[in-house]
Specification:
Ferritin; about 140 residues; mainly alpha; elongated
Length: about 140
């Protein structure tokens, strides 16, 4: 049987994949920077972000879809490029921070797009909570040096 996905299902799955990718990239970036304050913030953001995996998965299942997962080949390729950049740059910290902030802003845009769908009250609450966490992460990363 064929199931046509709603805009909300598509949007939530995109957010779930982006959240999982962000955690993977934060955990990988910890290996690329030598600044303990930066690695601590990456760990903090990744831990907070993981709390949304289950909530997003439940919301997606309640809508009648199955949660998506990131493309491992795409992620591996991106991480290889980051490791190469780090190998040729004496201090890769500022580059990693800029990458993470850009990805957080992209995640915020996905959340905004999801709000434009006909999401139910539970989904809107989840999106609000995640938006707050992402905004806090952007501020935390922006204040990190």
């Amino acid at each position: 049987m064929f199931h046509l996905l709603s805009d909300t299902e598509v949007a939530l799955n995109e957010i779930l994949v982006a959240c999982r990718e962000s955690v993977d990239h934060y955990e990988d970036a910890i290996q690329l920077v030598e600044n303990p304050a930066v690695t601590e913030r990456f760990q903090q953001i990744a831990a907070q972000r993981k709390l949304f995996f289950k909530r997003l998965s439940v919301a997606i299942r309640e809508l009648g879809d199955l949660p998506s997962v990131p493309d491992p080949d795409k992620e591996t390729g991106e991480m290889i490029l980051h490791h190469l950049g780090a190998a040729f740059t004496p201090d890769y910290t500022n580059e990693v921070l800029a990458q993470r902030i850009e990805r957080e802003q992209q995640l915020l845009e996905l959340i905004r797009n999801a709000r434009d769908t006909d999401a139910n009250e539970n989904c809107r609450t989840l999106l609000d909570d995640l938006s707050t966490q992402v905004t806090d992460a952007i501020h935390l990363l922006s204040s990190t040096k």
